Amino acid sequence: MYLGLDDKHALVLGASQGLGLASAQALLNEGARVTLSGRSPERLEAARAALPTEQQARCFLAVADLAHPDAAGLIAAQARASGGAIDILVNNTGGPPPGTPSSITTEAMATHFASMVQPVVALTLDLIVSMRERGWGRILTIASSGVVQPIPHLPMSNALRSTLVGFMKSLAGEVAGDGVTVNMVLPGRIATGRTASIDAGQAQKSGTPVEDIAKASTATIPAGRYGTPEEFAAVVAFLASTQASYVTGSMMRVDGGAIRSI
Ligand SMILES: NC(=O)c1ccc[n+]([C@@H]2O[C@H](COP(=O)([O-])OP(=O)(O)OC[C@H]3O[C@@H](n4cnc5c(N)ncnc54)[C@H](OP(=O)(O)O)[C@@H]3O)[C@@H](O)[C@H]2O)c1
């Protein structure tokens, strides 16, 4: 299927590794210009250097820490300066630490709100203006299966990402008539560095070998395995495409069937 992305510019947050980088690669494979964003110029540069030479010429970098109060403006300015007007925004952030609901502090909640929610809302509000004026745009937000089926040991993730669900669903209704779609993509268990470190943390805490933690986690997934970043990114590329013009206000699960509800 032709995705119609070859004249589009996508900005992907959290794109130095994992789901963000895989999403950026999928968009590059479809011919888009892509700006990778993250905190470390070295990690972003390494990600770009590993791309095929032809793709490097249409891959740009925007360095900022999402925790910085001006992150949204800094990222948007760098992306526009190098790649032009932004057609597609893939919101993606770091994840908060695991824990129990009763051990959350309001200070920690505020800190993670400031890096996971505020900059995402600010950047979305900034970019949506020009998307509406130009009559075409895609806002995708990578969240978690935890917004549908809360993950017991990730209460802060469940809570903060649900804020974005409410905001993005509200926004989808407002801008649908302007050619701009707004969707969430919900990873279940996709094999990235973060998944490995969460499994390792669980293993250390429970004194169980990490292989047993991964095996128990896999047993809860009907597909019988973790997903690959490429499988996740293929869904992002489709939702970003011209073909997905009538899909908005949706939460697309990429979870191998892990969420039990309809
Ligand atoms: N993988 C899964 O199965 C899964 C499941 C549910 C939810 N999620 C969530 O989906 C998101 C992506 O997952 P992942 O597995 O790809 O995570 P990851 O491997 O940890 O990647 C996170 C990305 O976010 C960037 N980042 C982190 N903190 C940042 C900050 N303060 N400012 C700017 N960039 C920042 C990192 O780049 P730098 O460190 O270079 O800045 C990195 O590129 C995370 O929020 C994760 O919790 C993932």
Describe the structure.
This protein is α/β, with parallel strands linked by helices and 262 residues long. It has two domains: 202 residues, 3-Layer(aba) Sandwich (Rossmann fold), CATH 3.40.50; 35 residues, no CATH class. The protein has ten helices and seven strands. Helix 1 links the parallel strand 1 and strand 2. The two termini are 28 Å apart. NADP nicotinamide-adenine-dinucleotide phosphate (NAP) binds next to helix 1 and helix 8.
Secondary structure topology:
Blueprint: E1 9-12, H1 18-29, E2 33-38, H2 41-49, H3 53-56, E3 59-63, H4 71-83, E4 88-91, H5 106-116, H6 118-134, E5 137-142, H7 155-175, E6 180-187, H8 193-206, H9 210-219, H10 229-240, E7 251-254
Parallel strand pairs: 1-2, 1-4, 2-3, 4-5, 5-6, 6-7
Helix pairs in contact: 1-10, 4-6, 8-9
Bound molecules: NADP nicotinamide-adenine-dinucleotide phosphate.
Residues 14-20, 38-40, 43, 65-67, 92-95, 115, 142, 144, 187, 189-190, 192-195 line the site of NADP nicotinamide-adenine-dinucleotide phosphate.
